[in-house]
Amino acid sequence: MSETHATIAPGAPVFPPGRYGRRRNPGRRRPVLRALLVAVLLAAMGLVAAKLYNQYGDPEYRAEVITYTGITDSRVVVDFRVTLPPGGSATCLLRARAHDGAEVGHTEVVVNAEPGARHATVRHEVPTSARPFIGEVLRCRPAG
Predict the structure, then answer these.
(1) For 99-109, what is the mean pLDDT?
(2) What is the CA radius of gyration of the chain?
(3) CA-to-CA distance for 121 and 78, rounded, in angstroms?
(4) How far from chain centre, in Å, is Cα 36?
(5) Which helix (H) or strand (E) is 140 found in, with range?
(6) What percent of the chain is modeled with pLDDT above 90?
(7) Nearest to residue 89, comparing CAs of 66, 65, 64, 60?
(8) What one-character DSSP code corresponds to residue 20?
């Protein structure tokens, strides 16, 4: 027969004394430590986001392909428009791809805007090692 105590609530488990070690108090938590860890995590995520934005994203340098023409076995001509800071310059990476998606050529071109102008339209030839299917602008970044 098991031993029952009047101070134990009905339905609560009864453990033999000394058998399972010391039980923890259920109310002991560290909210300050948890808040500090969350703050450090958010700060680290903010630093990573800022680094990635500076490295890969600059909304002042946008390029859009107008057309790609002059497709031969060794080249494609890409017409594109670049949005720049007024009077600024950018280095744009152009790429030509074959029908199966393989890159068959790439080149960098420096684009300069007229003083006070925010846009520059450029036509540039991309030399290729095989017949291209498409010409595209991968990215533009500040020249330098």
Answers:
(1) 95
(2) 32
(3) 11
(4) 27
(5) strand 134-142
(6) 51
(7) 60
(8) S
Q: What is the pLDDT of residue 85?
A: 84
Task: For residue 63, list its beta bridge partners.
Answer: 82
pLDDT surpassing 60 at residue 139: yes
Tokens of 84: 């720049």
The SS3 of residue 90 is: strand
User: At 140, which amino acid appears?
Assistant: C
Taking only the tens place, the pLDDT of each residue in 36-57 is 999 999 999 999 998 888 777 6
In whole angstroms, give the CA distance from residue 134 to residue 96: 6
Q: Which CATH class is domain 62-142?
A: mainly beta
Please state the length of the chain.
Answer: 144
Tell me which of 4 and 65 has the higher pLDDT. Answer: 65
HSE-up of 89 (CA within 13 Å, CB side)? Answer: 7
Encode 34-46: b = buried (16+ Cβ within 10 Å), e = exposed: eeeeeeeeeeeee
- 63 close to 108: Cβ distance less than 8 angstroms: no
**Residue that is written with structure tokens 């890409």 in the block:** 78
Using CB atoms within 10 A of its CB, is residue 93 exposed (0-12), middle (13-18) or buried (19+)? middle
* pLDDT tens digit sequence for 3-32: 655 566 667 777 777 777 766 666 667 788
Q: Which two tokens stand for residue 116?
A: 């006070």
